[in-house]
Amino acid sequence: MSEALKDLIALLSLDSAGENIWRGLGSKNDGAEGTYGGHFLGQATAAAQLSVAPDRYIHSLHGYFLRGGVPGEPYDYHVENVRDGRTFSHRRVTAMQNGKAMFDLLAAFMAAEDGRRIKSEPPEDFGDLPEPESLPRYHEMMANLDEQPLPEEWALREHGVDIRNINAPWNEQGPSARGGIRHWIRSNGTAPNNRALHAAMLAYQSDESVSDNILIPFGLTWGTPGITFVSLDHAMWFHREVDLNEWHFVEQWPEAGGHGRGLAHGKVWSRSGELIASFSQEALMRLD
Question: Would you say 208 and 163 are in contact if contact means Cβ atoms under 8 Å apart?
Fold first, then answer.
């Protein structure tokens, strides 16, 4: 297991801080003034899962980013039991720091159940995608660029999730046919076989570059000087249980922009072509 994966697991392993309160490690300074949105998503998902029966699987989450937070300082996640029914459970989680609400999440869980399935087809070129092992690791690819499009604190460090870019504004292939970012992801080493951990890891990872897609039409990134660019809200649906010790393909694309906001979507596919998860994010987008 890599040190980066150990750090990610530690970040998603919360400590009890009172009744229905869980404390998580503070974030790193990754080149932005506030906290990486996936930090909130991953830790809040972990906190919500700690409060439900082990036979209930997370199937959706909806989060709102309220404040940026102070890097390095811990967060307390207050979990409210909204409802426990025969099949479904719902939890509201609020991330607090220095007495202020930073992030609010509503998560839904469901007991395992068989049901009819709709077959979702992966992208037309899925069978022709380069094998992930043939592609450079994210920080290695970024280190070979003549000019960094993102802050080095983020771009050049090793991450707990191994990313192999297929399409991106910063590689030779450029954006996808849909104008978005596509890549393979897998845990950076072997993570423990823990369903809740892998769900929290995917929630954490889902924020990594989704909003970058709405800047692609303007030739910008969140590291561009003079730009105000912060996540506003995030929604995610888990269609299947995820095992991030296996490679997964992530497809992302921009959907809409205007009135100072932009919306992007993403889908996560297993290597065999099963749809594992879907997510969407809206971001504040102000350009000088």
Answer: yes
- Report the alpha-carbon distance of residue 230 to residue 36 in Å, rounded: 9
Angle (deg, nearest 10), helices 3-11 and 195-205: 100
Please tell me whether the overall predicted TM-score, pTM, comes out greater than 0.90 for this model: yes
* pLDDT the model gives residue 119: 83
Distance CA 139, CA 257 (A): 29
For the record, the structure tokens of 174 come out as 């450029």
Q: What pLDDT does residue 116 have?
A: 76
- Residue 288 pLDDT: 65
β 15-16/56-65 pair status: unpaired
User: For residue 2, what are its two tokens?
Assistant: 């890599």
Scanning 33-148, the segments in alpha helix (DSSP H) are 37-50, 138-143
pLDDT, residue 31, reads: 67
Residues 176 and 165: their CA atoms lie apart, in Å, by: 11
What's the pLDDT tens digit per position in 218-247? 888 777 777 788 899 999 999 999 999 999
How many Cα atoms sit within 13 Å of 211 on the Cβ side? Answer: 23
Stretches where the chain sits below pLDDT 70 are 31, 288
What b-and-e string marks burial along 150-184, b requiring 16 or more CB atoms within 10 Å of the CB? beeebbbeebbbbbbbbbbbbbeeebbebbbbbbb
Quote the pLDDT of residue 95: 98
Rounded (to 5) percent helix, strand, coil in the chain: 20, 40, 40
Distance between alpha carbon 245 and the CA centroid of its chain, in Å? 16
CA distances from 153 to 25, 90, 144, 208 (A): 18, 36, 15, 14
Q: Are 228 and 38 in contact (CB under 8 A)?
A: no
CB atoms within 10 A of CB 12: 27
Under 8 Å between Cβ of 93 and 78 = yes
